[in-house]
Amino acid sequence: MLRRPRRLTLLGVVLWALRVGIVAGVVVGAWATLTSGGLSGGTWITLLAAGLSQGAIYALIALGYTLVYGVLLMINFAHGEVFMLGSFSGMFVANALLSADGFMVSYPLVGLLGVFAAAMLTSMLVALVLERVAYRPLRRAPRLVPLITAIGASLFLQYTAFGMFGSRTRRYPPVELLSGRVEIFGFSFQRIEVITIVAAVVLMALLFYFVERTRTGRAMRAVSEDKDVAALMGINVDRTIVITFAIGGLLAGAAGVLYAFLFNRVDFGMGILPGIKAFTAAVLGGIGSITGAVVGGVLIGILENVGPSLLLFGLGVPSPNQLRDVVAFSVLVLVLIFRPTGLFGRKENV
Amino acid sequence: MELRPRAAARRAIAVGGIVGAATIYLSMVGLVGAFARRPLVAGVGGDGPGVITLGLVMLAAVPFIAGMNVASRIRFGAVAGSGLLSIGSAALSGLVGGLLLGAFIIVADAIPLNQIFIAVTSALVGVLAFGQGPLIGALIVTAVGAVAGAVGGSIQMLDSRDRRAILSGIGIVMLLALLEPILDPILDRIELDDVRDFVFSAGGLSQAAAALTLALVIGLSWAWGRPAAPLRDRMRAVPAEQRRVIGFALAAIGVAALLILPQISTGFVSLVLVNVGFYLMLALGLNIVVGYAGLLDLGYVAFYAVGAYTMAILISPSSSIGGPFEAAVGPEWAFWLAIPFVMLVTALVGVLIGAPVLRLRGDYLAIVTLGFGEIARILFGSDALRNWVGGPNGVVGLPNLHIPGFGEMSGPGDYFYPVVAFAAFAAFVAWRLSNSRTGRAWNALREDESVAEATGVNTTNYKLLAFALGGTLGGLSGALFAVQLRTVFPGSFLLIVSITVLAIIILGGMGTIRGVIVGALILVGLPDALREFGQYRFLVYGAALVAMMVLRPEGLFPSRIRRAELHEDVDADSRPQPAASGQATT
Q1: Do A272 and B356 touch (CB under 8 A)?
Q2: pTM of this prediction?
Q3: Please, which residues 109-128 of chain A have a Cβ atom closer than 8 Å to chain B?
Q4: In the 8-state DSSP scheme, what is residue B200?
Q5: CA–CA dist B302, B453 (Å, integer)
Q6: Cβ of B527: how many Cβ atoms within 10 Å?
Q7: Is the confidence metric ipTM above 0.95 for this complex?
Q8: CB-closest option in B119, B368, B382 to A322
Q9: What are the pLDDT digits (tens) for B349-397?
Q10: A-B contacts (CB, under 8 Å)
Q11: Rounded to an integer, what distance in angstroms lies between the CA atom of residue A141 and that of residue B97?
């Protein structure tokens, strides 16, 4: 039987024109850049490494979004601020360890572990308070209400950090273990980039183990499937939600330390952009999917580093790297318009 | 709730813990330090001892409110002296809070935390400890906490008429003192020097004026306030004819006061109100999109930016279009001829942004629009579009606004009347829309899209219309903003603008114009007028958004429909069951 052709609406035409236009723009831009030969192979490798390491950080944050969305169907807009506060806390510990007879210099590994622990615990604590004060009272409210609350919480946490720690950009102390370059396959990479990727992979492996192999992980999956049925099966839903927020916080705290080492800056507004980009990553991968968050994070990281040079350089756009955030936001907008379920998403979540 | 003494004590101590945490938070975030510099009621002889600062009031308000809360929650039933026990619980919670803050004072004095928490300085310790040593200070703070809690509890135990009188007395004295920077220059300008010398002293109310106002307001409020008869119910008792007359008269007085204000006050007040006007127009526009049609738009600042840039490019002689345009129509008319273009462009942008996101609902829509807003900001500030919109430098050198028949506006404060006129126009449009067929279609769309579509509402067109009209109002605001500032920078169009506008309509109550006006005055006017606020205003916005959503999601001035929606469960329980009552009568 022949399928009846769908009615052609004006909107459909506009969307198709948009699709064609984007594909054409990408092809033309990439072709122009690659044939112009203005950028060498080494440049691409550098951009790719930067993209991978930033992508790993986005993936860590995106996991927090996706886990929470999985169990509560809400966008935890304040997650970027959870990440920011963890970064601050790690910095204070790092500086304290440095001034305490140079502990950071003589035992760098122990010191770094302490920094990570402080950041992760702080972020976890903030996430838990957030859940208790701002989100739990609204569990049954209409869907937009928790989102607006989350926006408010995000603003509140940002300016709490502003009031407490000031507007000055602060830095982590230099750690020898993390600086310098390494040679892999004949290419030279920044050591911090490699370490970021390794650390992120380790954390994600732990998360996979936890979600797939432990009882609590199984409870989390059950709650994200159906809260009411999970409760009937004897799962403590409140406790599971709290654990989900805690895990999201722990990962965000680790991401905060890695991000601060990578970009060498800590300030009260640092959570906004990585937060939105990580959310983009979660959406790109299919929100609610753990694999999706990881893949999405890495893709966003690579796209925003490689994209501007690849697509815009050849077209003669001045200073294309100013537009790297535009690339990330465009990906967000386009994914939501054309494939809101993302790469690995389930249909019913949209 | 009736509790046994031990359970009651435990509860009171828990509340005390919250009081302590809240006061310590306020100190650590720097609000106490910033507000301690602002006197509300002057001391003896102006600068003498006994100054009541805003910081002190804020700190004391925490145990005070907690005390009211505790006394209303913890009751001991019909035991003799139960009222005293409730007040005792309130005092206990204040005491515990004070103890915690006292401990904080001692710790902050002993350990230098300044390296981490920049607000925790020796100056802060001095303020908190009332200028005494840390130990004595801690004792004073504990006592103050206990007293504030007990006073709050006692006021809660009074009957509602007395309570309302006392609370409104305190509230109005505080408001008068807060508005000193506005009222003082007005009194100066209209040359009531004797009144001014009596009322204000050393940047706050004088002690005599504060006491007089307090007594006056309490007396009047007590004499007026029959128990359990709020103003709204009494208004309802008035016949409809008279009610309309009263409403009209009140509105006329309000408008007259507004129009006369710049004549009797300083340029500073005009400037604050001009800023309020910009945000009011933005909020009215966003209210159409969010409040009427229920489409949460987090990138609303894009319209503000597009409106401002369109106006700037059209009338700035330094841009490639503006020069010839102005030469053709003359400087007097350039702005007015550009306005229709601005409206057209922003409406078009509204449709362009709206069209691809039509299928998205709720939170996804919010995030996409946020993406659009950020893309717009980055593009306007980038080198890629430098030739058209000036990149990071923006567009400069916009001519002053000419109003035919009135001449040229020279200072930023002169824009008061044009902004009022434009805002009134926006309010009129919003008001007419809300009661129209279109408004009802939007309501239906907001309630349930599928049902709306099934009943014959063309959801596509009405959604696009909401984006276009909301965008137009935002664009108008931007156009006026550009002319008033005479320059346009990408830095004016940050995400925080969108969130501020959202906070305004949430605070006021989504969907009502009255609420939007009050929201703009509170969230933009008040922090602008009180310079001590500085960056802390955003902290307050955030807290306000969370608190409103958790405690009162319908806003301060909700529309009737909206309130019913958000309290469905309550209404369903309290409403008499039609079936049951039907059976009873037959």
Answers
A1: no
A2: 0.87
A3: none
A4: E
A5: 29
A6: 19
A7: no
A8: B382
A9: 999 888 888 878 777 888 888 888 888 888 888 877 777 777 777 888 7
A10: 165
A11: 32
